[in-house]
Amino acid sequence: MRRWAEHFSRTADVLVISDTDAPINGVRVEKLFTAKAGARNLLRVPRMRRLVREFSPDIVHGHYLTVGGLYAALSGAKPRVGSAWGSDVYFGPRRSFTERMIVKYVLRKCDLVFAGTNDMAQETRNLGYRGDIAIFRFGVDAAVFKKKAPHGTGEFRILSIRPCSSIYNPHVVLDAFRSVKPHLGKSYLYMLDFGNSIDTIRAKVDSDQSLKDHVRFVPMRPHGEMVDLYNSADIAVSVPNSDSAAASVLESMACELPVIASDIPSMRDWMDEGANGYLTAIDPARLADKMRKAYSVRAMLPQVGRRAREKVLDERNQGTFESNIRVAEAVYKKLLSA
Questions:
Q1: Which residues are within 8 A (CB) of 261 and not within 5 positions of it... i.e. 6 or more apart?
Q2: Which residue, 167, 184, 249, 323, is most buried by CB atoms nearer than 10 A?
Q3: Strand partners of residue 329
Q4: Which residues of 128-150 are buried (b: 16+ CB within 10 A; e: fewer)?
């Protein structure tokens, strides 16, 4: 979101209405909503409509259809653009009748929708959308996210690149590592120290000495510092239930860090099994097998990583932020000209 807003602020006035007042360079940020307030945020809609009316936008864009997309639909401004991010079309509408009705309402109001993958675009169609769709992946800045020197410690380091939140299945990652650890030599699992499941993950680690000695928690850090984290590992793991073309996966690949990813449609577009990464069922035993396989060919992982970066850099795959933002600019201009 920050990269999107900063980019368009170079040529336009950008207003971001959010649940945080974190600054964005060159962008006006208004903290109007409250995180995790749910339906109570609807009480702020009249104030949002006044802000939007005063700003008088040429385009109003809602990111994540069931949240930002809803507020864009209620903003009173048009044309309206929505961005599907993953769970808003894959998970929410199946879990909740209310979310299904929200996303259907939002899609009726949209003049254009961005989807992260072709499969996600089809899911958006399945929810009733009949308008224009463009593929947009947040992508990676390949000039920043690139290979540095190996960590050179003699350790085999597995990095879980998603927050410890339930949708990313951190318990599956932890259980897989515990079962396979005796077969991985001097190995360590690195987990991000935040997310809605972090307390139970930490408790699970603290209760098992064998895990406590081999699991390291990584605090939240600025986006620009993630390149050093990716370069500190030998293999990355990302096993969400649903996903778009996740930025963290593409950033890892750009850093020549092979990824073990969920065997879901969005990741099948990126992983050529064994050549530039690995696919796994969301199951501790199956994930453990892929960890063991990666360890067994650890001398070859740099070659796997180089092929991963090549996949990201291929312009046809829209793996870089620059290739995607050109798509966004083109469809914005088309929408405005219409």
A1: 237, 238, 239, 249, 267, 270, 271, 277, 278, 279, 280
A2: 249
A3: none
A4: ebeeebbbbbbbbbbeebbbeee
Tally of CB atoms within 10 A around 179:
16
Peptide bond into 79 cis (omega under 30): yes
The CATH code that applies to domain 2-138+320-337 is 3.40.50.2000
Q: Is the pTM of this model over 0.90?
A: no
Taking the CA atoms of 303, 309, 234 and 258 in sequence, report the sign of the dihedral they define.
Answer: negative
DSSP string, 114-125: EESSHHHHHHHH
H or E segment and range at residue 105: helix 97-109
Asked whether the CA dihedral 306, 320, 120, 94 is positive or negative, the reply is: positive
Please report the pLDDT score of residue 58 as a whole number: 97
Share of the chain above pLDDT 70, in %: 100
Q: How many residues does the chain have?
A: 338
Residues forming a β-bridge with 217: 191
Given this model, what pLDDT does residue 201 score?
A: 98
- The DSSP line for 147-158 is ------SS-EEE
Q: Does domain 156-317 have CATH number 3.30.70.270?
A: no
Sketch the domain layout of the chain as residue ranges. Answer: 2-138+320-337, 156-317
